[in-house]
Amino acid sequence: TLTTGTLTIADSGVATATPVIQVGPVTFTGAVSSTIMIIAKLICGDSNKLALACIQFASTVTGGSIDVNGVSRTISGTDVGSYYGVYFVGAVSGTSPLSVKGVALTLSITAALADVNVYAVHFQSTVAGSGAVGSALNCSENSMGGSVSTSTGNIILRLVSFNDTVSAVENVELSGNSMAGLSAVANGNSDVIMVAFLNAVTLTGTAASSIVARSNSVKGMTSQGVTGYAQIVLLYFNGASGQISNVLVDAADMRDCTVTAGSSSDWARFIAVFFYSTRTLTMVQSGRITVNNVWLGGSMSYGAVDYGGYSAKVLQLGQSTGVKELAVTNSVI
Fold first, then answer.
1. Furthest-apart CA pair in the chain: how many Å?
2. Strand 2-9 to strand 32-44: parallel, antiparallel, or no bridges (unpaired)?
3. CA–CA separation, 144 vs 148, rounded Å?
4. Is 133 exposed, middle or buried (0-12, 13-18, 19+ CB in 10 A)?
5. Tens digits of per-residue pLDDT, 123-149?
């Protein structure tokens, strides 16, 4: 349990392009409160332990600030289960800024005999900022590369995943992330999402309340469900989203991708910005959605439709209100 103070786990401060501290998995088993935490430039060993993150917050995080910048992990072998880079198990509340950047996973998982789930950054419970002006959530410059295959089982790959609600944050930044060249071939379903909001997202409702995603790439990615569905989605919203003034997606590279579903009864999804069809988006203030310079390319194969959304799209909106300006520009499929 950490209460009030500063904890730094980092290198000596010497500038370097690669991590310089090699550690086993680090787990904070107790609650963390009012702590300024800095974790930078770590190489995580113990690459094949399952259900274990390189950095894990096993309990709640309250107040203070978290700055993770530079964590790398290589995961290889034939083991099945769930793998994590940075894993927040308990609720996060009042923490600002909350910044998790530079988490890099390199995968080499072959012929797994059951489901494989990989998360670079995963929030299992609720995430709530301070609600103050400037409250910030930043998950940028993270990456996942390599390959995953199963001989029996599904694949779920998430670069950044929010399993529960996100609220009381003014600015969400999701830029410079990459899954370029990643290959997922499942003898089942292949489910690949760069940033997944699986529940409601409620910002602070100010004029500056924004979700910004710049310069993200899935170029050259393969997602194949040999006997199931397949998808590649850049930004995925599967809950009610509200109190948002601006949504900006700019310079997304989704060229040279392959999305292949298994049969005539399986659907496929290849979408840059995806709001599930029945989910609501409530815009306030300027009410501006801007999607610019998004390139989708490659090949798709599927035989069925999905009610929530399918096929290749730059943008899919569900039920939206308060949108005053919608611009989709300089984009190509």
1. 58
2. parallel
3. 11
4. exposed
5. 999 999 999 999 999 999 999 999 999
Omega prior to 25 cis, within 30 of 0:
no
- Which pTM does this prediction carry? 0.94
- Which amino acid makes up residue 272? A
86 and 121 Cβ atoms separated by less than 8 Å: yes
| Closest listed residue to residue 119, CA positions, set 173, 21, 187, 50 | 50
165 or 279: which carries more pLDDT confidence? 165
Cα dihedral: 2, 93, 72, 101 (round 10): -130
State the burial class of residue 111 (Cβ atoms within 10 Å of its Cβ: 0-12, 13-18, 19+): exposed
Q: For residues 119 and 158, is the Cβ–Cβ distance under 8 A? A: yes
Neighbours of 185 (CB within 10 A): 20
Identity of the residue numbered 161: S
Q: Tell how many helices (H) and how many strands (E) occur in the chain.
A: 0, 29
Q: Is 320 helix (H, G, I), strand (E, B) or coil?
A: strand
